[in-house]
Amino acid sequence: MAKLTRATSFVADNEKAMGIAEVEKQSPGSKGFHRYQIIYVIRDGQIAEFTKDLGKAKLFNWTNPFAIYSFMEYTVAELMGMAETVRHSPPYDKRELAGVNRIKN
């Protein structure tokens, strides 16, 4: 059975958030893959998602999907600033993360 996700249609810049992620998913109506920014906030005592479409995924081929966890330490505006920084940072090297010289793709 699919898990239902609570959604919200708004977030405030000064609102504390659980985290932020940028992922690539199929857009509604099967119009290709898009990059989405998902902000996790608390609504009625439960985690809810606010989703923002950033555009076609091919416009972001120079950066990897990522997540930043906050656990209510940072605000929505602070996390969005961090996401902007990560998005414009050079992609990480998988070999460096694994601590090896060779890695199979």
Can you give me a brief rundown of this structure?
With 105 residues, this protein is of the alpha+beta class.
Describe the 3D structure.
The protein has one domain (16-98). Helices cover 16% and strands 41% of the residues. The chain has two helices and four strands; from the N terminus they run ββββαα. Strand 2 and strand 3 form a beta hairpin. The model has no long low-confidence stretch (mean pLDDT 90).
Task: Specify the overall morphology.
Answer: globular
Q: Write down the secondary-structure element order.
A: EEEEHH
Which regions contain 5 or more consecutive residues with pLDDT less than 50? none
Oligomer state of the chains in this structure:
single chain
Fraction of residues in helices? 10-25%
**Number of helices, where a helix is a run of at least 4 consecutive DSSP H or I residues:** 2
Spatial strand order of the main sheet: 3-2-1-4
The main β sheet shows up as: 4 strands, antiparallel
What portion of the residues fall into strands of 2 or more residues? 35-45%
Number of strands: 4
Q: What structural category characterises the helix and strand content?
A: alpha+beta
Distance between the termini: 32 Å
What average pLDDT do the residues reach?
Answer: 90
Task: Give Rg in angstroms.
Answer: 16 Å
